[in-house]
Design goal:
There is one protein chain. By secondary structure, the chain is mainly α. It has two domains: 150 residues, Ribonuclease iii, N-terminal Endonuclease Domain, Chain A (Orthogonal Bundle), CATH 1.10.1520.10; 67 residues, Double Stranded RNA Binding Domain (2-Layer Sandwich). The protein contains eleven helices and three strands, in the order H-H-H-H-H-H-H-H-H-H-E-E-E-H. It has a three-stranded antiparallel β-sheet, covered by helices on one side. Helix 4 packs antiparallel against helix 5, helix 4 packs across helix 8 and helix 4 packs across helix 9. The N and C termini lie far apart (58 Å).
Length: 241
């Protein structure tokens, strides 16, 4: 099997691009975006996994969502823009975008990762979605990424506002720290337990060298959010003020 092939029954990169109307000129770039390191470990002929594209996609999404929010909500205050951006690009939300476009069908995973349901795991879905965004940016530019993302952002932002999901404890804690003139909260992974496909993370939030909250969750983002919530409760911070 060469680096462009996938297992029978798995959607090919070309099929994914056609289904989502993604204007890829370089099919190998999209193939790399879909390739998890577990696939690379079992297929040495495959040239590269998607981790570098994931890094790029993360940065592209941060800028794109900030620019989109600035234009989409001209009356929204800076603090609310920050919270909305966080709500639109956190791990769970990116995984939800991946589920909405059925990205799991095209993910290229090693046999062990595939058998353990890797194409339904939140962190892998999030990482692969970011990698596809990074690949699309390299291949076709910012406007193509924007065209791809706008329907997802429109739906997600409507959902966030309709269900009062704008408050983000991490952003609120950071704003509090800035107002107090103290260091930005740092989130440190304290522990992780369980098998690779079902890990539980424990994260500390640290301010001025002191642990002020600890949270757990099935993703680092969820654990960090819980840590921030507990820190705010301990400090007596009202997120609405």
């Amino acid at each position: 099997m060469d680096s462009g092939e996938v297992e029978p029954g798995i959607e090919t990169p070309e099929e994914l691009a056609n289904r989502l109307k993604l204007p890829f000129k370089d099919g190998l770039l999209l193939s790399r975006a879909l390739t998890h390191r577990s696939f690379l470990n079992e297929h040495p002929e495959a040239l590269e996994d998607n981790e570098r594209l994931e890094f790029l996609g993360d940065a592209v999404l941060d800028f794109l969502v900030a620019a989109w929010l600035y234009n989409r909500f001209p009356e929204m205050l800076e603090g609310d823009l920050t919270r909305m951006r966080s709500a639109l690009v956190h791990t769970e939300r990116l995984a939800d975008y991946a589920l909405k476009i059925d990205l799991g069908r095209a993910m290229r995973l090693g046999k062990g990762e595939s058998l353990s349901g890797g194409n339904r795991r939140m962190p892998l879905l999030c990482d692969t979605f970011e990698a596809v965004v990074g690949a699309l940016y390299l291949d076709s530019g910012f406007e193509s990424v924007l065209t791809f993302m706008v329907p997802l952002l429109d739906q997600a932002s409507d959902d966030i506002l309709a269900n009062n999901q704008l408050d983000d404890p991490k952003s609120s804690l950071q704003e509090w720290a800035q107002a107090q003139g103290i260091s930005t909260p740092q989130y440190v992974i304290k522990n992780s337990t369980g098998p690779e496909h079902s890990k539980i993370f424990e994260v500390d939030v640290v301010v001025n060298g002191e642990v002020i909250g600890t949270g757990t969750g099935r993703s680092k983002q969820t654990a960090a959010k819980e840590a921030a919530q507990k820190a705010m409760k301990r400090l007596g911070i009202d997120p609405c003020t």
